[in-house]
Amino acid sequence: MSAAPQAPAAIASTVIDPIAYAEWDDLLNTFDWLRENMPVARIENGDLHDPFWLVTGYDDVMRISKDNATFLNAPRGVVLGFRESDAMIKAITGGSPHLVNSLVALDAPIHPKYRRLTQEWFMPKNLSQLEGEIKALAKTTVDRLVDAGTEADFVPVVSAPYPLHVVMQILGVPEEDEQRMLFLTQQMFGGQDEDLNKTGMANMTAEQVTQLVVGAVADFEAYFAKLTEEKRANPTDDVASVIANAKVDGEYLSDRDMAGYYIIVASAGHDTTSASTAGAMMALAQDPEQFARLKADRDLLPGIVEEAIRWTSPVQHFMRTAAEDVEVCGVHIKEGDWLMINYVAANHDERVFENPRKFDAARSPNRHLAFGAGAHQCLGLHMARMEMKILFNELLDRIETVELAGEPKRAKSSFVGGLKTLPLRYTLSK
């Protein structure tokens, strides 16, 4: 057991810099170097944030993800935050590091109880009953692409609105409120990308950013408080009704816990699928032979979907806190230490994924970590896969050829990331 070397200052800055996540190849080069030289690296950036251990190897990230007794979610922020913002959040919440008290911020014994409330709803057997509705949404979405002519930016036309429509329908949010939900999500997860947060956040201080996010959370909570009243009075067959009427240990969820449940479903349920969908389309636009093979053989579609999810890794990191002294890859981690498990790095570990930067639809096995693992594995993974398969079946029926019509651009975000623009040129099927 040994102490890990401290990461060089340039690397310590890179791995937390939202702008670095928009420069994908350079970022992957950094993670390659870390896996080879410092698979568990100490990251310090002065007064910006508390020190943490960055874990980049697949096996180590998998182990930490599955060991929820040793590596906890609750005691610290589950997303990297800055000291100034963390202090403000604790002041607002009365001491909690979590502005939103959602499933990702909970540990056992409460986490499994809360997860069970909706787990059955998101299983394939139940989701199959929604297939017809999702197919209709996919058709309407592709209609917009067809109506655009022969060139369009795939992200705002297809990959962003489609999963938003799906998750809002599942949640029971009326269509006229979807744009409000999208705007609030952008405020919470747009990070420092000036094209996504729509608020000038990139030029704000940490205090201003925190105040903006606090306002977005308050708006979410007010909206869903009203929705809860409606769903308790007149429950319908949707997730909002399940959450509104659920009881744990004989009691309704508290207002804060209920709001956190709504928010995680409403926000996490579309940004991530949007990123994977755009990633798959970019890969196909860059490889016309693979696109032609997929059109001819739809049995290849599950492989395309799974590889897109690995290749894009939309949720780029989560944080954990050591519950006890522990060793990770030969490095001594003390009780209370903060760790970042980086899914981008793990999903590009060449020891597990041959030629990991290549989009390989035939990759098998493809045991990626884009959905996490263990008790906190993404609740909506089956829904994401189904959405993508349905959408691409519709796209393949109506698009004959596709190619890039410009340079795709990635979002500046160290948490949830992916393409923010994907200009395409395409021909329509006769």
What is the CA-CA span between the terminal residues? 65 Å
Quaternary organisation:
single chain
Extract low-pLDDT stretches. none
Amount of beta strand: 5-15%
Helix content: 40-55%
Strand order of the largest sheet: 1-2-10-7-3
Q: Which structural class should the secondary elements be placed in?
A: alpha+beta
Give the overall pLDDT as a whole number: 91
Q: Report the C-alpha radius of gyration, rounded.
A: 21 Å
Count of DSSP helices? 17
The biggest beta sheet reads: 5 strands, mixed
Counted beta strands: 14
How is this structure best described in words?
There is one protein chain. The chain has 430 residues and is α+β, with helices and mostly antiparallel strands. It is built from 17 helices and 14 strands. It has a 5-stranded mixed beta sheet with strand order 1-2-10-7-3. The chain has a 3-stranded antiparallel beta sheet with strand order 4-14-11. A hairpin with an 8-residue loop joins strand 1 (40-43) and strand 2 (52-55).
Protein traits:
five-stranded mixed beta sheet; 49% helix; 17 helices; 430 residues; 14 strands; three-stranded antiparallel beta sheet; alpha+beta
Lay out the secondary structure.
Elements: H1 9-14, H2 24-37, E1 40-43, E2 52-55, H3 58-66, E3 71-72, H4 83-93, H5 110-119, H6 124-127, H7 131-147, E4 151-153, H8 154-159, H9 161-171, H10 178-189, H11 206-233, H12 239-245, E5 247-248, E6 251-252, H13 255-285, H14 288-296, H15 301-312, E7 317-322, E8 326-328, E9 331-333, E10 338-342, H16 343-346, H17 381-398, E11 399-404, E12 409-410, E13 419-421, E14 423-428
Parallel strand pairs: 2-10
Antiparallel strand pairs: 1-2, 3-7, 4-14, 5-6, 7-10, 8-9, 11-14, 12-13
Helix pairs in contact: 4-11, 7-9, 7-17, 9-13, 10-11, 11-12, 11-13, 13-15, 13-17, 15-17
